[in-house]
Design goal:
Blueprint: H1 3-11, E1 22-23, E2 26-27, H2 39-48, E3 52-58, H3 63-72, H4 76-85, E4 86-92, E5 98-100, E6 106-108, H5 109-115, E7 123-127, E8 133-138, H6 143-154, H7 163-170, E9 190-191, E10 200-205, H8 210-219, H9 223-229, E11 233-238, E12 244-246, E13 252-254, H10 255-261, E14 269-273, E15 279-283, H11 290-305
Parallel strand pairs: 3-4, 9-12, 10-11
Antiparallel strand pairs: 1-2, 3-7, 5-6, 7-8, 10-14, 12-13, 14-15
Length: about 325
């Protein structure tokens, strides 16, 4: 769901609501592939699917690997491009799994990392259809630069323009590096058990998230949304935040672990809990709750009956 539609959903809220492999310590997105690690086959498979092979070199406990997963790959535009345009595989630079390089030579994961002189994690290596390396990112790239690299590789622009030159003109404006605060956000300690309290709205964001910036810059400034949120207790956490939380279900755990248990993948996301502490619905990149879809349709009909214009994309 585009952010404007997310904002409309917030403005239509009713008065009450009723419930692997790792990179660092963050779970890899489900579209990372498990293969036999024969890169000759992986390059060929990617080519058949109109994709390119992307290899992520990571290691446990790597903070920037975690940043790549939680910040870059939580943004829908980046995740969609990576999923649709690339066959993505992760390797541990200290791992012992067997790998076959594009020329048939055999290595362990750590042997291949040494062969390629991988010195930083994350390092991403991108391949063309013949198994040649077209780009290599040593270390973490923030989302606005990382997305431009994906565009360059997926568009096969190496035949037209050097990556460095492309980045000088194609990189979008960076998003804010800090989370935004709002006066209506709950303050710690976070005891989110309802015990008959008001319904709860929990926002999950990350830094360097343009859609999160827009949510604060425009969404929360809209009178209808601000008025609707007054009916809720409102909390906000970062996807990678280790702040302790007492969840509506009564579990005490870090906010990051709670977000993972909720299966959240995109930012911004908001999860709504009723006065009974059960999740009622959520708004992510896609709306998957059929009852909420029906609620929106019903509410839209009511608005039209009053002569109001309803446009989900404004």
């Amino acid at each position: 769901m585009k952010l404007p539609a997310l904002l409309l959903c917030l403005s239509l809220l009713p008065g009450s609501a009723s419930a692997a492999a790792t990179a660092g310590s963050a779970a890899l997105p489900p579209w990372f592939a498990e293969t036999f690690l024969d890169f000759r086959d992986d390059v060929a498979q990617a080519a058949r699917e109109g994709k390119r092979l992307m290899i992520l070199f990571e290691q446990d406990g790597c903070p920037y690997c975690k940043e790549l997963i939680l910040t870059n790959f939580s943004q829908k535009a980046i995740a969609d491009k990576a999923r649709k345009k690339f066959l993505a595989i992760s390797l541990n630079i200290w791992g012992d799994r067997g790998v076959i390089w594009t020329d048939g030579r055999k290595f362990s994961e750590k042997g291949l990392a040494a062969f390629l002189k991988i010195q930083f994690t994350p390092t991403l290596v991108f391949f063309d259809e013949r198994g040649g390396i077209v780009a290599r990112l040593n270390g973490y790239y923030p989302p606005h630069r990382f997305e431009a690299v994906l565009d360059w590789v997926a568009g096969r622009r190496e035949r037209k323009i050097a990556l460095a030159e492309y980045l000088r003109t194609a990189v979008r404006e960076p998003a804010g590096e800090q989370l935004h605060d709002e006066p209506f956000f709950l303050k710690p300690p976070y005891d989110l058990r309802r015990r008959g309290a008001r319904p709860l709205a929990v926002f999950f964001e990350t830094p360097s998230c343009a859609a999160c910036d827009e949510l604060h810059r425009e969404g929360f400034r809209r009178a209808g949304i601000a008025e609707s949120l007054k009916r809720f207790d409102v909390a906000r956490f970062a996807l990678g935040e280790r702040t302790p939380v007492m969840t509506p279900a009564g579990d005490r755990l870090p906010a990051e672990d709670w977000a993972r248990s909720l299966g959240l993948s995109y930012t911004p996301s908001v999860v709504f809990f009723g006065a009974d502490g059960r999740e009622a619905f959520r708004i992510e990149a896609y709306l998957r709750e059929p009852n909420f879809q029906r609620f929106l349709q019903s509410r839209a009909r009511e608005m039209r009956a009053r002569g109001e214009t309803v446009d989900l994309w404004r």
